[in-house]
Amino acid sequence: MKGLLAVFFVVLAVSGCSSKGRVPVDPFDKKVPILEHYKQALNEGKSEDHKQVAALADFQTAAAFCTVVHNFYERRAKEMEAAKLGVGSVGGLAGAIGAMLATAGTGGYVGGVSSAVSSVTSSTLGSAETGPLGPAAYSTNRALIAQMIVRANAKMEDATDSRSMYKIAISLLTECPAPVSI
């Protein structure tokens, strides 16, 4: 019986740590896109209207990259919430089994191990919000990136020349990977 209970804990722990087999897209594994449309139009001596269209194309490239980064942070926040739920479930189950075994007087080493797992889980979840399982940092970065995209769109509407439009695109592209609160 005790061996079966230990096997149950191992299976539960291993199955809680498995993934669904998908490989998440990490924008930081890829190169940051190069904004080249405006530079090309400038080097070719194109008209201001053509340079504005080129700057808008560069802005679109930057915004698309920022959207990928935004989605990465959103996905990580959800994954961390799921990880916290899994860790909490294992700890709650371990605590319940340990308490039942201790009450019945048949716990032995399994009851002690179960109580230890429950204690470690409680400690982990107690500091999870500021530690590696904390989704708050990912959610904050996601919100900051969304605000950056909205602000950049508003600036683009007010821009009157291609050079300032290109500067807005560059600013958006460089700020996205490491969002900062303003």
Order of helices and strands: HHHHHH
Main structural class: mainly alpha
Identify the overall geometry. Answer: rod-shaped
The level of helicity is over 70%
How many individual β-strands? 0
Round the mean pLDDT to the nearest integer and report it.
76
Number of helices: 6
Low-confidence stretches: 17-23
What amount of the residues lies in strands?
under 5%
Rounded to the nearest angstrom, the distance between the terminal CA atoms is: 59 Å
| CA-atom Rg in angstroms | 26 Å
Largest sheet: none
How do the strands and helices of this protein lay out in sequence?
Elements: H1 2-16, H2 37-43, H3 48-104, H4 108-126, H5 136-158, H6 162-175
What would you note in describing this structure?
- The chain is mainly α.
- It contains 6 helices and no strands.
- The longest helix is centred in the middle third of the chain and has 57 residues.
- It is rod-shaped and about 85 Å long.
- The relative contact order is 0.15.
- About 4% of the residues have low confidence.
Please sum up the structure shown.
The protein has 182 residues and is mainly alpha-helical.
What attributes characterize this protein structure?
6 helices; 182 residues; 74% helix; rod-shaped; mainly alpha
